[in-house]
Amino acid sequence: MDLALTVLILGVAEVTILSLAFRAFERADARRAGAEPPARVSRAPETGRFFADVRGPAQSERASIEALLLQLERHVRVEQAAAESFLRNPTSESLHHRAASPSQLAN
Questions:
Q1: pLDDT tens digits, one per residue of 55-90
Q2: Can you list the alpha helix ranges (DSSP code H) found in the chain?
Q3: Are 83 and 107 in contact (CB under 8 A)?
Q4: CA torsion, ordered 69, 75, 78, 84, to nearest 10 deg
Q5: Is pTM beyond 0.70 here?
Q6: How many domains does the chain have?
Q7: Residue 27 within any structural domain of the chain
Protein backbone atom coordinates (compact mmCIF):
# COMPACT_ATOMS: atom_id res chain seq x y z
CA MET A 1 0.00 0.00 0.00
CA ASP A 2 2.83 2.36 0.83
CA LEU A 3 4.52 1.61 -2.48
CA ALA A 4 1.34 2.29 -4.45
CA LEU A 5 0.81 5.59 -2.63
CA THR A 6 4.42 6.63 -3.30
CA VAL A 7 4.11 5.82 -7.01
CA LEU A 8 0.83 7.74 -7.23
CA ILE A 9 2.25 10.84 -5.52
CA LEU A 10 5.40 10.81 -7.65
CA GLY A 11 3.31 10.36 -10.81
CA VAL A 12 1.07 13.31 -9.99
CA ALA A 13 4.11 15.45 -9.17
CA GLU A 14 5.80 14.48 -12.44
CA VAL A 15 2.70 15.27 -14.51
CA THR A 16 2.37 18.65 -12.78
CA ILE A 17 5.99 19.60 -13.40
CA LEU A 18 5.85 18.52 -17.04
CA SER A 19 2.62 20.43 -17.67
CA LEU A 20 4.15 23.60 -16.19
CA ALA A 21 7.22 23.19 -18.37
CA PHE A 22 5.06 22.60 -21.45
CA ARG A 23 3.07 25.79 -20.76
CA ALA A 24 6.31 27.77 -20.40
CA PHE A 25 7.51 26.51 -23.77
CA GLU A 26 4.13 27.34 -25.36
CA ARG A 27 4.35 30.90 -24.06
CA ALA A 28 7.89 31.27 -25.40
CA ASP A 29 6.74 30.03 -28.81
CA ALA A 30 3.81 32.42 -28.79
CA ARG A 31 6.17 35.32 -28.02
CA ARG A 32 8.51 34.27 -30.82
CA ALA A 33 5.59 33.97 -33.27
CA GLY A 34 4.50 37.51 -32.45
CA ALA A 35 8.00 38.89 -32.88
CA GLU A 36 9.24 40.18 -36.21
CA PRO A 37 11.01 37.50 -38.26
CA PRO A 38 14.73 38.08 -38.78
CA ALA A 39 15.77 39.67 -42.06
CA ARG A 40 16.99 37.21 -44.63
CA VAL A 41 20.34 37.68 -46.21
CA SER A 42 20.23 37.36 -49.97
CA ARG A 43 22.88 35.05 -51.37
CA ALA A 44 24.03 34.21 -54.84
CA PRO A 45 22.21 31.24 -56.34
CA GLU A 46 23.86 27.96 -55.50
CA THR A 47 25.58 26.22 -58.37
CA GLY A 48 25.80 22.87 -56.64
CA ARG A 49 25.13 21.03 -53.45
CA PHE A 50 27.13 18.65 -51.36
CA PHE A 51 25.27 15.48 -52.30
CA ALA A 52 23.59 16.48 -55.54
CA ASP A 53 24.43 18.78 -58.38
CA VAL A 54 21.59 21.11 -59.40
CA ARG A 55 22.56 20.86 -63.08
CA GLY A 56 22.52 17.07 -63.08
CA PRO A 57 25.33 14.70 -63.95
CA ALA A 58 27.34 15.26 -67.11
CA GLN A 59 27.34 12.68 -69.90
CA SER A 60 30.73 11.26 -68.86
CA GLU A 61 29.49 10.96 -65.27
CA ARG A 62 26.42 9.07 -66.49
CA ALA A 63 28.63 6.64 -68.37
CA SER A 64 30.81 6.08 -65.31
CA ILE A 65 27.71 5.55 -63.16
CA GLU A 66 26.42 2.97 -65.63
CA ALA A 67 29.80 1.21 -65.60
CA LEU A 68 29.76 1.13 -61.81
CA LEU A 69 26.23 -0.27 -61.83
CA LEU A 70 27.28 -3.03 -64.23
CA GLN A 71 30.24 -3.90 -61.99
CA LEU A 72 27.96 -3.95 -58.97
CA GLU A 73 25.43 -6.21 -60.69
CA ARG A 74 28.21 -8.57 -61.77
CA HIS A 75 29.57 -8.68 -58.22
CA VAL A 76 26.12 -9.42 -56.80
CA ARG A 77 25.69 -12.27 -59.29
CA VAL A 78 29.07 -13.75 -58.28
CA GLU A 79 28.19 -13.50 -54.58
CA GLN A 80 24.79 -15.10 -55.15
CA ALA A 81 26.41 -17.95 -57.05
CA ALA A 82 28.90 -18.46 -54.20
CA ALA A 83 26.06 -18.49 -51.65
CA GLU A 84 24.07 -21.01 -53.69
CA SER A 85 27.17 -23.18 -54.03
CA PHE A 86 27.64 -23.11 -50.26
CA LEU A 87 24.00 -24.01 -49.68
CA ARG A 88 24.33 -27.01 -52.03
CA ASN A 89 27.51 -28.29 -50.35
CA PRO A 90 28.07 -26.62 -46.93
CA THR A 91 31.64 -27.23 -45.77
CA SER A 92 34.03 -25.07 -43.80
CA GLU A 93 36.33 -24.88 -46.84
CA SER A 94 33.55 -23.61 -49.11
CA LEU A 95 32.51 -21.10 -46.46
CA HIS A 96 35.92 -19.44 -46.41
CA HIS A 97 36.64 -19.91 -50.13
CA ARG A 98 36.85 -16.66 -52.08
CA ALA A 99 34.27 -16.11 -54.79
CA ALA A 100 35.42 -16.31 -58.40
CA SER A 101 36.36 -13.01 -60.00
CA PRO A 102 34.33 -11.75 -62.99
CA SER A 103 37.25 -12.55 -65.36
CA GLN A 104 37.20 -16.18 -64.16
CA LEU A 105 33.45 -16.37 -64.75
CA ALA A 106 33.78 -15.19 -68.35
CA ASN A 107 36.05 -18.13 -69.20
A1: 655 666 777 888 899 999 999 998 898 888 888 888
A2: 2-34, 59-88, 92-95, 102-106
A3: no
A4: -90
A5: no
A6: 2
A7: yes
